[in-house]
Amino acid sequence: MRRTESPRGAGAGRSRVAGCTLLVIALGAGVTGCSSGGDPLSAEPYDAADQISFGGSVEAGRKADPDKPLEVVAEDSDGRITDVTAVDASGRHVAGELAADGSRWHSTSPLAAHARYTVRVSTEDEDGAPGRKVLTFTTGKPTTTKRLAVTFGPEAGTYGVGQPLTAELSAPVEDRAQRAVVERALKVESTPAVSGAWHWVDDKELHYRPQDYWPAHATVSVRSTLDGIKVNDRLRGGRAKPLTIRTGDRVIAVTDAATHRLTVHRNDEEIKQIPVTTGKPGFETRNGVKVVLAKERLVRMRSTTVGIAEGSTESYDLDVHFATRVTWSGEYVHAAPWSVGSQGYDNVSHGCVGMSTDDAEWFFDTVREGDIVKVENSTGDTMEPFGNGYGDWNLDWRKWRAGSALTPGTTQDPAEQARLRPQSA
């Protein structure tokens, strides 16, 4: 924080005792700090802790209660706090607010249990002389015992540029403030760096994606710092296994249902056009962006699984080759040798994108999980964002950010900002 010279210049020659500032750290320490005479702007920071005593809820020699906030108070009206930082041994920062007059600082994020914290307090006396104190304390056992586990997805591996990250929680979190505690602890790093955000799908699931697709050949890592952090009176964060994935080429396949053509781009270069057929009236293919979920060389497709009665004029039971799945409800890009005559000319399928066997094999071998498959100009509905695969990209960035529990524009410490950082070596 920038220091300004006190207007009370006449007191510049006062003794250190006259400008003494008392700091009380409610979790465990009282700290005193005083200024030296002479030019306060050129003075070395003095030790602001000539007297230290434990107070509040913690007695000297005992561990601090992690369920209570950290507080620093300047009890002398002639002095003020200029800055406080609190960080644990794992590098987790405690967010806090400093009063405008410098009289008080308090934490606004929970403390972790069984953690050792270092608190750095900067002060300024009435003459503008700086003081400082470094204090350490350890938190004890929490009153909450139930742990919130976090499981990240997908599995480690290489994916297309459309693959979202997922976080599955072991217990529901409904309150927005509690969600913010969880979300703030889920750290994503990317090389190259891109902007991204978490979105709460429901009370137990979050998805993370950038504003645009991931860069090609990126490395993306996600980890949790929630361990030991209080979420609510009955729930505290548990450990989570970190995850690293990589992206391959930028592969985007676009199907135009009106022209009956599927065009594949790799790294923004068109590499193939394929004649296709899409869903006929009553079975229209979904519009919008989908993400490859899986690839199956042979899958049995039965009409009964999509609600078509057995024996009806629309019923079918087929062995389908080179099937690339894009929804959990059964939409694929696959070989359809029975409709080759319509491919490139008419839409005759029950919702899938059909093509010749040779083209389907080429497509199957070209794409990977996480690649983008987009459909345009179908008369069908738009792919839903969640619940039937990864339709995450069908939400614009404003709506995606609205699904975050962290209010856009909120000041956060450097480790909590939405900007993704390059990984450390």
Portion of residues in helices?
A: under 10%
The CATH class of the largest domain turns out to be Mainly Beta
The whole-number mean of residue pLDDT values reads 82
Q: What summary fits the major beta sheet? A: 6 strands, antiparallel
| Number of separate strands | 30
CATH topology of the largest domain: L,D-transpeptidase catalytic domain-like
Point out poorly predicted stretches. Answer: 1-22, 28-36, 48-59, 409-425
CATH homology superfamily name of the largest domain: L,D-transpeptidase catalytic domain-like
Terminal CA distance: 31 Å
Instruction: Tell me what the CATH architecture of the largest domain is.
Output: Beta Barrel
Structural class: mainly beta
Please report the number of helical segments. Answer: 3
Explain this structure.
The chain has 3 domains: 9-138, Sandwich (Immunoglobulin-like); 146-248 and 400-416, Immunoglobulin-like; 251-390, L,D-transpeptidase catalytic domain-like (Beta Barrel). The chain is 6% helix and 37% strand. The protein has 3 helices and 30 strands. The protein is elongated and about 90 Å long.
Briefly, what is this?
The chain has 425 residues and is mainly beta. The chain has helices at residues 176-184, 357-366, 397-402; strands at residues 21-25, 29-33, 46-47, 52-53, 71-74, 80-88, 96-98, 104-107, 116-124, 130-138, 146-148, 150-153, 157-159, 165-169, 186-191, 196-202, 205-210, 219-224, 230-232, 235-237, 243-247, 251-256, 261-266, 269-275, 288-291, 294-302, 317-325, 332-335, 353-355, 372-376.
